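Lecture notes, unit on protein representations.

Consider one protein chain, 424 amino acids long.
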Amino acid sequence: MKKIYNPQPETWSEICKRPTQTFSDVEETVKQIFKEVQQKGDKAIAKYASFFDGVTLENIKVTPEEIEIAKKEVSAELKEAIQLAKSNIEQFHAAQKTDKIVVETTIGVTCWQEKRPIQKVGLYIPGGTAPLFSTVLMLAVPAKLAGCKEIIMCSPSDKNGKINSAILYVADLCGVTKIYKVGGIQAIAGMTFGTETIPQVYKIFGPGNQFVTIAKQFASQNGVAIDMPAGPSELLVYADETSIPSFVASDLLSQAEHGKDSQVILVTTNKNILNDVEEEVYKQLKELPRQEIAQVAINNSKLIFVETEKTALSLINEYGPEHFIVCSKNEDYFVDGIQNAGSIFIGNYTPESAGDYASGTNHTLPTNGYSKSYSGVNLDSFLKAMTFQKISNEGIQNIGKAIETMAEAEGLQAHKNAVTLRLK
């Protein structure tokens, strides 16, 4: 890991860069696949499944028989763990429900807001080197709670044409309505335009690599909403002398093993902690089955020493991490002062892995600095806030003159007339 001591603020933007390709590097590939899927539908889906995943499928839709087989293949122990996680995720997201808001803004003028579910949503579940069945929980549970009518899921199959059994088990458990063996850019394009087999959706959710992230941004340019730009995983830990170096190192590695384009950062005001954590990282790295992947991510990562907590907090807010762990005697200072982070984990006994799986919060979070303007997935992500108003005869008399005056000032005579007729 690269060690950086007392970086000056003018260098922070360089320090905060992620190890990913730029939009322009990937744009042409995404554009080409989107165009082909739009024009050729399932034929293009099959072409790119063969090209990228090395698989030829006669039918990309998962059958009920495949789901039943998958359910039998998941161990009782894993099913029990999934049920615990599902219960906690349901509790946390159900608590986010809000009541209808009704306000009489003027006598005779009643306005209210109600939330209605997005009818058709698409969930993208990464497969590849780590089949993320936990992401199915994070997306399908709030989608079901929100009342989404159609919950479409795409996930890449292996070379034998199978989706991971745990992914299928959780999808069935959480009420996913249709599942397709499609991954990558072509999956996002399929849900954007619809094909002969894959339905078009209104909003696409889910993390992925940088190709999937940019594909989602293309989807948003083609009339389909997205949850957020959620790309390669990242974690920033602030640790002082009260932290436990082995714990900190384990957290850094837990995100580094996600993928070669992941990034982890330690910020500290204690040089001994910096050195101890580095030593622990390399010690634990040797024991990881995904050592090769984690090693590449570690090479893209940083150990940063700064003199004061104030400087540390400013740097962390500039970075805007997806995940932020605070291990400090002054944890309240960081908890109160953090402005830009997807999800915050507080104390030595709060590993980031808890949020990834079973504490109840959602692990689909903004990366690449997007936490400065985006929230992580939550119940509202699957809902639309709709406003209503009803005006009585007395109400239009009370606000009509103001409407006429404003419409006339903007030169919109028809707007004024719509009120004038009613006032008469």
